[in-house]
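User: Show me an example of a complex going from sequences to structure tokens.

Assistant: Sure. Here are the input components:
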Amino acid sequence: MLELDQLFKNIYLWGENLFTQWGIPLFWLELLGMLIVAVIILAFMSLSVLFLVWWERKVSGHMQSRFGPMRTGWHGWLQTIIDAIKLILKEDTTPGTADKIGFLIAPIIVFVSAFMAYICIPFGKGLIVKDLNIGILYILAITTFTVIGLLTAGWCSNNKFSVLGGFRSAAQIISYEVPLTLSILGVVILSQTLSMQSIVNSQKHIWEWYIFRQPIGFLIYLVAAIAEINRVPFDIPEAEQELVAGFNVEYSGIKFAMFFFAEFANLFLVSAIATTLFLGGWNGPLLPSWIWFFIKSFFLVFVIMWFKWTFPRLRVDQLMGFAWKFLLPLAFINLILTGLFA
Amino acid sequence: MENGTQTAVFYILSGLIVGSAFMVVSLKNIFHSALFLVLCFFSVAGIYILLSAEFVAAVQVLIYVGAITVLLIFAIMLTAQLYSPSIRQSNEQVIPGIIIVGTLLIVTLSVLRRTSWRISTQGIEGQSTVSIGKSLLTTYVLPFEVVSLVLIAALIGAIIIARRE
Amino acid sequence: MFESYLALALLIIIVTGFGAGIILVSKFIGRRPPLREKLLPYECGNIPEEDARGRFPIKFYLVGILFIIFDIEIAFLFPWAVIYKELGIFGLIEMGIFLAILLIGYLYILKKGGLKWE
């Protein structure tokens, strides 16, 4: 079987032998290992974002009875790469009245917070960068930096639309964070651990998957997660008809690309977390673990993309009312029921 | 974990905390102050990790950076007339400030010097989350329930203040 | 355990450097002469009249306060959830009291219309 974790362990042991032979202290090996890990994760994120953007345009196209990108490469698979190159070559303007330092930092904050959450995702058996004891709590904590980044982007652009867009975006994200965390708590009660690999390990058979024991929790998580990443039907802060792209109105070129990249990276992240918590992670017969993980995650991504073209966009007050008056009580009821009957 | 690395990390984190706190109070642009406050909170989370309190560190980031800083930035955005030149930004009472703070510093340092600190070499068994949960719900149940009263007081207070507009 | 977090801190520094590096590269590659129009804030072709940082509705602030309170409540729920099985019915009752008091608060907000409009 193509289990990758043994391969990585062997490479590390080989490196250790080499370094001790040459007499270099192991600290440098750790540092080099970290750099390589960073590059691998960045490469993986870039590849998945590339694929997801292409897939989104294809799925959207076919759901609207049209083809989507077809010219660049076979069925347009080169489209995203070409778009990325175009964005790098574009000029990097900063509005005259903007707060220059904040304007520069905002995309970096959003990008880094999206990246750091990938450290704790179990891609396969043994394929997790760091299985922290507080796994899922760490992911929740690190993704709160996204809100700060969005607010900075909105405020520092000094543009009426972007400030309001940033405000609404932040208000939406924090409103949906409470039901999101409550649905995760339901899974934590069932699995009695916060570590991601342990949660996956407790769902070895398909009848043990938490989606069957927490169906409401799964639905709450899915809805809240879509709201967290600002996608339709919750994309009021970014809607073209409403706020002219909201908080990233003034951004062009590579900074815009970073926001876009972070949005799709978050899309995959949210599906990966849902797969780990509710669909049994990388467990599955016959095929290698990481293939199962990708099948499940991409299926959820497809479902989220499907929502985009099925539901109309919610108004701001409907959005907030839905979070505080419906989803929050529902999530609490789910938690209490889980507590009573687990 | 070797002692040398721990000490080095501690000094770096402390430097970050003190430095960013200093920037928070001395910068003219209030939004930049808020960003340095984020750095300060994040470094405090680092100190918690040094003390093997990973749960507390995660909650620190989750609540302080995720909620309190966001509220602070909302407040900055809502009272934007702070940017207008008619409101004085600079501090006119530097000398009295230095005297008072200096006295406080001397008093605190001398108290710290004279206390005999008991250094515990006993680590935490198991995970910090589990230990916190156990003590919170068995030994310290009463303070735990009182916290909910504090929270409801804050809730009611917020509504009363906000509804009056 | 502590080594993992040190590795995380180093990773943050590496990725921030990478992000800043890409932006720097783009600054040099995509250079064009600055025009006055390019520096103006975007308003679909109009010239903006007043400063963008005007007054905003206070309901955002209220949402922020509510979020803090519920966030703290969730922070207390985490340790309970992790040792749920060990504590059994006793822990459930304690947490039930905690949640019941907060439920009263939530119903109060609902009744007072704190969650209206947004």
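The lines above are the inputs; the final block is the predicted structure for all three components together. Residues 275 and 281 of chain A are 5 Å apart (CA to CA).
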